[in-house]
Amino acid sequence: MTKYVYEFSEGDGSMRNLLGGKGANLAEMTGLGMPVPQGFTISTEACTRYYADGEKIGDDIREQIVDYIGKLEELTGKKFGDPENPLLVSVRSGSRASMPGMMDTILNLGMNEDVVAAFAAKTGNPRFVYDSYRRFIQMYSDVVMEVGKAYFEELIDEMKERKGVKDDLELDADDLKELARQFKEEYKTKIGSDFPSDPIEQLFGAIRAVFRSWDNPRAVYYRRLNDIPSDWGTAVNVQSMVFGNLGDTSGTGVAFSRNPATGEPGLYGEYLMNAQGEDVVAGIRTPLTIDQLKAQNPGLYDEFQEIVTRLENHYRDMQDMEFTIEEGKLFMLQTRNGKRTAAAAFKIACDLVDEGMIDSKKAVSMIDPKQIDALLHPQFDQADLAGATPIGKGLPASPGAACGQVVFTSEEAAERGKRGEDVVLVRLETTPEDIEGMHYAKGILTARGGMTSHAAVVARGMGTCCVSGLGDITFGVKSFSLGGNTYNEGDWISLDGSTGNVYGEAIKTVPAEIGGYFGRIMEWADEYRTMKVRTNADTPLDAQQARDFGAEGIGLCRTEHMFFEPDRISAIREMIVSKSVEQRESALAKLLPMQRGDFEGIYEAMGGYPVTIRLLDPPLHEFLPHEHSDVVALARQMNMETIALEAVIESLHEFNPMMGHRGCRLDVTYPEIGAMQTRAIIEAAINVQKRHPEWDLVPEIMIPLVGEVKELAFVKKIVTDTADAIIAESGVDLKYLVGTMIEIPRAALTADEIATEAQFFSFGTNDLTQMTFGFSRDDAGKFLESYYEKKIYENDPFARLDQVGVGKLVETAVKLGRQTNPDIKLGICGEHGGDPSSIDFCQRSGLNYVSCSPFRVPIARLAAAQAALANG
Ligand code: PEP
Ligand code: MG
Known about the structure:
The structure is a single chain. By secondary structure, this protein is of the alpha/beta class. The chain has an 8-stranded mixed sheet with strand order 12-22-21-14-15-16-17-13. An 8-stranded parallel barrel has the order 24-25-26-27-28-29-30-31, surrounded by 5 helices. The longest helix is centred in the C-terminal third of the chain and has 26 residues, at 581-606. The structure holds phosphoenolpyruvate and magnesium ion (MG). The site of phosphoenolpyruvate has 10 residues, from strand 25 and helix 31.
């Protein structure tokens, strides 16, 4: 028979998967002989069973729990429901990873009218007993029966007003007894039955509530953000109560072994005398700082300090602890590795190395790479943020905080941004034409688009805060409505690109700050990682930014992004509407020097590191004007009838632009495009190589959207014919590579054939994901939320690589590609290249490098090191 329940003395710290973090640490502290009120843990497997059995606690599990209550009764000499000597317990959730958003604690479980009456008489402290009782009813009603807290708080406030007192502590036993009665009445009104008096019934209600809370929307959302699988489940800890509210020699508190905000060494925490758990955090009474305990009770402080030191030395990490003092005696209720800010995380890791507690490998492994974002982007001033309420929530598309006045057009954003004004660009969606405005905006908010939509990808590349896919927005004339309010041009709003929250007011931001600890950790990370980290960059500026962040090359330069600069868009449009090869070539000739100049700038910025440049990829209609006035202007410029131009635009219209006339298909139909781009890439390389004889430039030309080896061979021939002729003429011995993106399932499945024509593969997992799933990356945001709700998908497959399906295609392509071309270079340049869990997958799949947007380069460096260490 499977064992589902463990006494604290039966477990230890290594049993985290089974007992959850809290349970494993309580067991470990018990083993270390620390003062822990005893109890038992119901395993995470019991939670998984609960869901597998249709949200029921199986009879065998129930039996074991009842059995362990018996054991706890023996251990403590107390009895459930016994008025003379009642066993009272706390019930708390605790999963493998600490997870805010799950069930709160229930304290004092086991109380009922009989117990309370006898207990009050026995302790001679009726005030304490009735205080505990009313707390229990309140917590149980709130978390088990989901009645809500607000009304209970109102009742307390009414009582205080009636008695003319301010502090809860001033209410006497009779007041609290009366409150307990009112609470039970409220329970009966809301639930329709009496408050349960049987402790066993109370206990199972609480256990079910913990299991249920594993799947509440907050917990599901948190798991999605933090890559926590839903099948882990949560454990339940049942622990005998110790009381911090027994009088002035009792108390309760929380403490960190180092400062969680700054990382400074030294005890940091708060406590309250004559109080129970939630009082410290609830803010009803102002807690004292832990230093004051030293003055108030030096003996107890020393004992606590000694335990803290032992715990830190034992876990070799900063600890977050809860403790209770019951009539002068100290009890430890919990310890765990403490959550900390990004700045504190780097400092603590370095300090622990310097103190000889951990080595540099451990330091690299203990930092969550996603936290790095907070160091590289501006953040909200925490005090200012505390008073703000979001008016809506979209996708956290590009991290950081932004605050500015609303503008609705890219032109307006650029104009006002250039004047130094702070603006937030609000759009239905963004297109490549918005690039300049996006650049000058502090933040971007869109109603449509997912995590790989244009707005998201471009904003991440620029390091600009972006919230996308906020479908609740409705647009008016130069205004939008959200959360019941209307915002006009010029109104102040604030965005949090790390959470997706939008605020209808100005919130102060503070600039990014990178300290010396960051550099030290990154140096270690570079030592341990085996994959290279490149960047996706389209301009010399982005390339420079990425190098500053430690990029070792460009994995993807999307050449089309340069075409939207105002001085180029007309030449590309001319190329598109050309009727003959000659006309097209003459338009391309105008583009050639501009592209060559861009590429020279990029090679220069990358200082000799490898640069992969992709041939034109998007469907041509993206470059054409959509507004009637722009069409008329272009027609005039092209010397065409407006009607004729409209016909061209109409002919280029595509229903699904992602699967149409794009990628290498453009070069198959218009070889002169590929020829011009190759010329620009090679001539630029020759020029830069001449300027820097010490560099060994080897440009990498990448052909997008290949699905068939013959189309790759066809386009490759255009590239090699052009390149070889230019190189021969130049007299410079320039080497170059030709490779392809693997972003169509057929390419992955026929990678052995494709590899005979390719010197490198770069996995374009954005397209590969959308084609494997069969849904568009621009539209998926509209329905993915329903998929999360129905638990069909746990994550956005555009943000976190689907290792089961898309991953199988990647692994297949790696294996087949190496079969026919053992020297082939393998990398990834889809957005997943900057996502830690996907980077771990890339390591396991044997890729040589990952490539991601500049601001994700440090994340990728750290994640790649962690992947190497974990899979080494
Ligand atoms: C991809 O498809 O993963 C990719 C990098 O190309 P793009 O996003 O430009 O389509
Ligand atoms: Mg692609």
